[in-house]
Automatic annotation (TrEMBL):
BP term (GO), one: aromatic amino acid family biosynthetic process
Catalytic machinery residues: 310
Gene name of this polypeptide: aroA
Chain sites annotated for binding 3-phosphoshikimate: 21-22, 26, 157-159, 185, 310, 337
Source organism of this protein record: Hoylesella saccharolytica F0055
InterPro entries given in the database record: Enolpyruvate_Tfrase_dom, Enolpyruvate_Tfrase_sf, EPSP_synthase, EPSP_synthase_CS, RNA3'P_cycl/enolpyr_Trfase_a/b
Residues the entry annotates as binding phosphoenolpyruvate: 21, 83, 111, 159, 341, 385, 410
Lineage: Bacteria, Pseudomonadati, Bacteroidota, Bacteroidia, Bacteroidales
Protein name as catalogued: 3-phosphoshikimate 1-carboxyvinyltransferase
Key word Metal-binding present: no
Enolpyruvate transferase domain sequence ranges: 8-419
Highest taxon in the source lineage: Bacteria
EC nos: 2.5.1.19
Main location: cytoplasm
Length: 429
């Protein structure tokens, strides 16, 4: 399937953003560990969240039909392309009694998980690799784990660290996790800690590089999930690229003071000429955010995205379309995402006439160098954020073509409908 996208001359839209995938996925795991009966409200309807919901439902169904003392075959859980689900469920299943096989797509089987498995094994988990050492699929024999002191590199995926922290409350000795070196995506770790405490956990930073989680059970409670700041970033990009001086976009369900790391998007885009106005500023209460143009913008953008790597594609595409040279650092994790995002960005931007360079497998920069556009369709590489980040480029490149556009269901299922609602013409070819 291929979409052709044409932007409207005017930009005026009200968008109901999807619920936060990051918060939804954490809330589901914590809710399960708490033994709660009240499902979190406003759950994301994206693919990544739905696979966790389905996995938890399958476990509950098997538990309900189990015969006392009767051995059961391993429960096969296919999380498809959901990286968060793979990391979080690996830790969760390790301390949940039962036999499980955790698998996914071909790309998922290429995404490393050794650092997390090693950490869990150190605490007593029984996990086997079924195909290639260090990669899914996994066979997990769940059992109570001891916990205690653990050291791991801070540069690994923050999802590994979050997965360990969330099970810390049910470990016999709790967890003292020391991270060495540079700690990547720290706001995501802080988001996990904040949510754990919302459910009654005693967990916090006890040193600059150490987090301690006490062996104290979670409390089950009602929980409202806020909408997604990462999804908002694509509308910030649309506002930044719009040539309509009266352009206005209203985004619902966002919180001022959000713990989502990607809420920094409003500060970054203020450098690109986008003003953010909150309807209300009540702590912990969702509100509507209005985006408008402001006259000032930088001539060049340099930014370290180590704490917000999911904004990289949005910012790289946006700056190129605005002819703003850039240098983004802290992108090492992009190599092991749904695709090699560094390579994918360089390849697809060249189709539009932009020659982007990379350094040290962790930086992307553009000094203004151009080449002849090829007019080819943008490939999405089974990566939702490639489609989401490139779609707004239709404002600069009319009739932009995007291959395999349905990958957006991984995080923003209604994106194309929302784009049409905003006046974009999106047609299937």
């Amino acid at each position: 399937m291929q979409y052709h996208i044409t932007a409207p001359p005017k930009t005026d839209a009200t968008i109901v953003l999807p619920a936060s995938k990051s918060i939804s996925n954490r809330a589901l795991i914590i809710h399960a560990l708490a033994g709660g009966t009240d499902i979190p409200q406003n759950l994301s309807d994206c693919d990544d969240t739905e696979v966790i919901v389905r996995a938890l439902q399958e476990m509950d169904k098997r538990d309900a039909t189990a015969t006392n003392g009767e051995a059961q075959d391993a429960l096969n859980i296919d999380i498809k392309a959901a990286g968060t689900a793979m990391r979080f469920l690996t830790a969760y299943l390790s301390c949940r009694p039962g036999e499980y096989v955790l698998t996914g797509t071909k790309r998922m089987k290429q995404r490393p998980i050794k650092a997390l498995v090693d950490a869990l094994r150190y605490m007593g988990a029984h996990i086997e690799y079924l195909e290639e050492e260090g990669f899914p699929p996994l066979r997990i024999s769940g059992r109570p784990l001891e916990g205690g002191q653990l050291t791991m590199a801070g540069s690994v995926s923050s999802q590994f660290i979050s997965a360990l922290l969330m099970i810390g409350t049910v470990l016999k000795q709790g967890l003292e996790l020391k991270m060495t070196g540079v700690i990547a995506s720290r706001p995501y770790i802080d988001l996990t800690l904040w949510m754990m405490k919302e459910f009654g956990a005693v967990a916090d930073w006890t040193d600059i590089d150490t987090i301690t989680v006490q062996p104290q059970p979670y409390c089950h409670r009602e929980y409202l999930i806020e909408n997604d700041w990462t999804a908002a970033s694509y509308w910030y990009e649309i506002m930044a690229l719009s040539s309509d001086p009266e352009a206005e976009i209203r985004l619902s369900g966002l919180m001022d003071g959000s713990k989502q790391g990607d809420s920094v998007v409003r500060h970054i885009f203020s450098l690109l000429g986008v003003k953010t106005i909150f309807d209300k500023r009540t702590d912990g209460q969702p509100t509507t955010v209005t985006l408008k143009h402001q006259s000032a913008r930088v001539a060049r953008l340099e930014y370290d995205l180590i704490n917000s790597p999911d904004l990289a594609q949005t910012l790289v595409v946006c700056c190129a379309m605005m002819n703003i040279p850039f240098h983004f650092k802290g992108l090492a994790s992009l190599k092991i995402k749904e695709t090699d995002r560094i390579k994918a960005l360089k390849t697809e931007l060249r189709k539009l006439g932009y020659v982007v360079q990379d350094l040290n497998d962790s930086e992307l920069l553009w000094n203004g160098e151009r080449c002849e556009p090829t007019g080819e369709a943008i490939e999405t590489y089974e990566d939702h954020r490639m489609a989401l980040a490139f779609a707004p480029a239709a404002i600069v490149y009319p009739h932009l073509q995007i291959d395999n556009p349905c990958v957006v269901t991984k995080s923003y299922p209604c994106f194309w409908d929302d784009l049409r609602q905003a006046g974009f013409e999106v047609t299937e070819q």
